[in-house]
Amino acid sequence: QNEEKWDFVLVSDIHEMGSQKEIKRKKFLDELSKKGFTIKKIEDTKLFYGVRAPQDVFLKYQHLQRKADSRQQNSSAHEDVEETTRIRIVNFILRNTVTPDFEKLHDLMKKKVFEAAFPLHKKEEIREILKEKWARWGVIFKEQPIKEIRHYFGEKVALYFAWLGWYTYLLVFAALAGLVTIVAGTTVFSSSQVSKEICDANTTFMCPLCDQNCSFWVLSDTCTYAKVTHVIDNEATVAFAMFMAVWATVFLELWKRERAAVVTKWNLHEWDEDEEELALQLINNLQHKPRWYQHSYFCSTIILILALLLITVLIGIAHMLIIYRAVAMALFMQSEVTLLSKHANTMAVLTGAVLHYITIIIMTKARSRTGPWALLPFLEEPRTLSQQENSFAVKIFIFQFFTNFSSLIYVAFFLGRINGHPGQYMRIAGRWRLEECHPSGCITDLFIQMAVIMLLKQTISNIMEYLIPLISHELRKKRKRPKKTSMMLGEEEEAEDPCKKQWLSNYELNEVNFFSLFNEYLEMAIQYSFTTIFVAAFPLAPLLALINNVIEIHMDAIKMMRLHRRMVPRKAKDIGIWLQVLEAIGILAVIGNGLVIAITSDFIPVQVYKYMYSPCRRENRTSMDCSTGYINNSLSVFRIQDFEPHTKVLLEFKGHQIKEYRDYRNADDYTYTVQFWHVFAARLAFLIIFEHVALCVKLIAAWYIPDIPQWVKNKILKEKYDNLRNEPRWVMRWKVPG
Fold first, then answer.
1. Which of 172, 220, 481, 604 could potentially form a cystine with 202 if both were Cys, beta carbons 3.0 to 4.6 Å apart?
2. Under a CB-based contact definition with an 8 Å cutoff, are residues 521 and 160 in contact?
3. Burial of 329 (0-12, 13-18, 19+ CB in 10 A)
4. Are 563 and 509 in contact (CB under 8 A)?
5. Under a CB-based contact definition with an 8 Å cutoff, are residues 421 and 670 in contact?
6. What does the pLDDT look like over 632-676, one tens digit per residue?
7. 447 with 232: CB under 8 angstroms?
8. Are strands 205-206 and 217-218 parallel, antiparallel or unpaired?
9. What is the pTM of this model?
């Protein structure tokens, strides 16, 4: 029965005898045979080669890792080493075996000598446990079997799911805080003084929103929009933004404790990646010389230039989205369809958000296929696999971050602030006016943009992420087995080979690669960015992330267990560079939310009005709402005769020669008023205070919660003490005689 346990399977097309590909394949298999590998060949529509490593390979590994003990050295062949360790060692040897033509497996797969190389999903007890307790929808609210995941997929995958589970658990508190913020906002849905004033402003006529054939409009027409804005934009939002800054820190600090506990239970706290890599290299080739650490300032400069060029391209794409919104706004305003013309601004925001989502999908696909990062391995030459992954992670995260957030940054910080004023508008190509903010602020535009992108990412993207592997698997099953049905009688004897069915069923599963887990981390890092950075504008982001993650965990489990080939297990004692990425996002979240409240929100202008310009300030009244009169105060007047000559305005409100717009400008020369500079100074002061307070609270939280639990420290200390006490007896001879 041991003979039928195979570590890896290589798949090849059936090449002509004597062909170049057949010769290269034979040379590679001969090299494996020289290393003592057992190889079994099965022929179907493809050639399948089962590979099993000799036991001395694993004994060498145990010795080099200083983990061998008498039980392991004397035990039977297939019980010495864990299955995940066997697969990892065999994978390393396969990938680093060199033919006489100086070609490795990677080169041969590029030349179509081999089509695939993968470890097997085997019918074993642990796999059935995972299918029952993890990889099905019926256990969606139950705890993950992290121990079993580790024994089947290795530590790296187990740590990913442990981190994802921990993140999802703590999202419950963030989601509740977001819901409380929204509920607090809904209580002022009809009672907000600012929205009341907008709803009552039926004699306040605003400047047209486009240049051609647009009429003046009454401010009270946007009553509902104003009420929705003040559900998001209120005092509770400031408290929620501060809470999320602390939450992000507490989450990472608690994860560090959880990781330390998990890694200590797995006895990996002293594991060293360099030692592991050197051991595997020596097992594969005793004459191997280590690759030394290298650094080139020239290569780093080239990479930096490439990164800046990429960011420039992404900013250019964001500009295209800005142009679309400006053009769409003008076209919608002039549309004969009442729904479009009446809600032109909202429609421009919605369609712009959908276009942004489509851009994200296209750029993500482009990133996964090609791009300047394809040059990175040649420029940097990372020493180990983890270093290569870390290098990729930072650069690709930056690319994805700008892809996802460039348009949001424009909406949050530039929309309505660079568009000029009536009579002197900023235009694209001298024709289309840039958009303006609603009199109640721009935060609702940011809310809509984030809501659309998050909802589309969590519905369409997740459905496709599940359906594509499912459909692909079904198609492969139908496509790969025609020979079996047509030649059933001729292959009857061969079909009885128990390996054939197992190898075929594994081959029909979807391919996994080095980036499979990398892409999962990347997806979650981007989601974490949405959940924290602009959360002040979209308090429901943590709730959407929570719902997504509960589904995502089990969807990933089903894909890994039922739809994808077995991932090559990898050893790890942390989540790598992703922890630093998440910490950087936490700092960006403080800056981003501070800017949203200071710049995007109307919170600061309202406070300045209350304490410097309101009736309360002038008349010292305590019974009235101090924001009374804010809307009228925040509008500036404009004389119709000062419109630009090419502007064609439908003068429906004759007799009203003065119209209004949102800004703090003087009526005579349209320069900024003193109040504008008061608001500007208050925004800047709030931003500085908010960010310093939030960062101080983050630092205090990081200090207050130790990274490593006391019991872990004490366990490691006890191990060191016991090791010193159990030194060989000859050490005792050094004692000074009494």
1. 220
2. yes
3. buried
4. yes
5. yes
6. 888 888 887 777 776 665 554 444 556 677 788 888 888 889 999
7. yes
8. antiparallel
9. 0.87
Could you say which DSSP state residue 415 is in? T
C-alpha to C-alpha distance for 291 and 294, rounded to whole angstroms:
9
DSSP state of 142: S
CA–CA separation, 4 and 675 (whole Å)? 82
The one-character DSSP state at 511 is P
User: Which amino acid makes up residue 271?
Assistant: W
The first and second tokens of residue 602, run together, are: 């109307």
The continuous run of DSSP H or E covering 398 comes out as: helix 385-413
Which pair of tokens denotes residue 456?
Answer: 């589309």
Q: Let me know: does 528 contact 517? Beta carbons within 8 Å.
A: no
The reply to whether 39 falls in a domain is yes
Q: What is the pLDDT of residue 371?
A: 46
Domain presence at residue 688: no
H/E stretch holding 541? helix 541-558
- DSSP helix, strand, coil percent of the chain (3-state; round to 5): 65, 5, 30
Residues forming a β-bridge with 212: 648
Write down the residue that tokens 């290299």 correspond to: 281
Give me the pLDDT at residue 547, please.
94
Do the Cβ atoms of 217 and 197 come closer than 8 Å? no
Among candidates 2, 10, 62, which has minimal Cα distance to 32?
Answer: 10
How many C-beta atoms surround the C-beta of residue 521 within 10 A?
A: 22
Range of the domain at 60: 9-71+78-120
Tokens (6 digits) for 617:
């300030």
Buried b (16+ CB within 10 A) or exposed e, 591-621: bbbbbbbbbbbbbbbbbbbbeebbebeeeee
CB 240 within 8 A of CB 675: no
Q: Is residue 221 part of a domain?
A: no
CA dist 405 and 416 (Å) reads 18
Say if 31 falls within a structural domain: yes
Instruction: State the pLDDT at residue 502.
Output: 87
Yes or no: say if 149 and 80 are a contact pair by the CB < 8 Å rule.
no
Name the stretches of the chain with pLDDT < 70.
Answer: 1-4, 66-80, 188-190, 212-213, 368-382, 480-496, 618, 620-622, 646-659, 727-738
| Domain total in the chain | 1
- Measured over all CA atoms, what is the biggest interatomic distance in the chain, rounded to whole angstroms? 114
Using DSSP's 3-state secondary structure scheme, residue 150 falls into: helix
Q: For residue range 400-423, what is the model confidence (pLDDT) as tens digits?
A: 898 889 888 888 888 877 777 787
Give the 3-state secondary structure of 668-724.
CCCCECHHHHHHHHHHHHHHHHHHHHHHHHHHHHHHHCCCCCHHHHHHHHHHHHHHH
